[in-house]
Amino acid sequence: MLTKLDQLEYDCVFAEKLKKQFHKYGSDKPNHAYEKAYQHFLSKINKIDNILELGIANYTIMDGNSLNAWSSLYPESKIYGLDHDSEKMICSGNIKTFLADQETITEQKMFDIFGSMVFQIIIDDASHEMNNTRQTFKALFNKLSNDGFYFIEDIRRVSNNKQQTVEDIENYLRYIPGIGYTIVDLKPGEPDDNDSIIACIWRTNG
Question: What percentage of the chain exceeds 90 in pLDDT?
């Protein structure tokens, strides 16, 4: 079942701040209105030390669009990125990236890279294919902090035979013990915008 926007607490100042930084660094997140979901969940985290995003976009001349936005929003935090493309690697300021392929990602490989580190925010904005999304969740959810949130972006209402759908995500998450989740459609009144849907997952058993 999809959560409606009016069911989320809404801080318009924080949402606008997120949107402004995403726009500034060329991220496509505002195209999906994801700032409206992020503001609700991120405001519940007391201290954000580490952020991890999978999928490093290069839509503009500035590499790592979302990573740079997160860096600007959370300058005291460490920002990490994972991508399979060696040309997208960044090491600048509080941003560091690593090579990783969703098709072969494992819990052991993530431990080899990050050790015992945990993340308050993990974002899967990579291939958007359900098999890869499932593999990534299995490899990374154990690295989510007890007060953190794991996001899966770009979920479709209706299948296009490639990209993950709401049904795919629900059918997977509903059987995993010890988690809570919600799936939010950010543009429910726009039938031509089929994938502005985000899932947010958290721990329920500490």
Answer: 81
What is residue 61's predicted lDDT score, i.e. its pLDDT?
A: 43
- As a whole number of angstroms, the distance between CA 28 and CA 26 comes to 6
- With a cut of 50, which residues of the chain have pLDDT below it? 60-61
Print the SS3 string covering the chain: CEECHHHCCCCHHHHHHHHHHHHHCCCCHHHHCCHHHHHHHHCCCCCCCEEEEECCCCCCCCCCHHHHHHHHHCCCCEEEEEECCHHHCCEECCEEEEECCCCCCCHHHHHHHHCCCCEEEEEECCCCCHHHHHHHHHHHHHHEEEEEEEEECCCECCCCCCCCEHHHHHHHHCCCCCEEEEEEECCCCCCCCCCCEEEEEEECCC
Radius of gyration of the chain (CA): 16
Q: Which pLDDT score is estimated for 62? A: 52
Model confidence over 134-153: pLDDT tens digits? Answer: 999 999 999 999 999 999 99
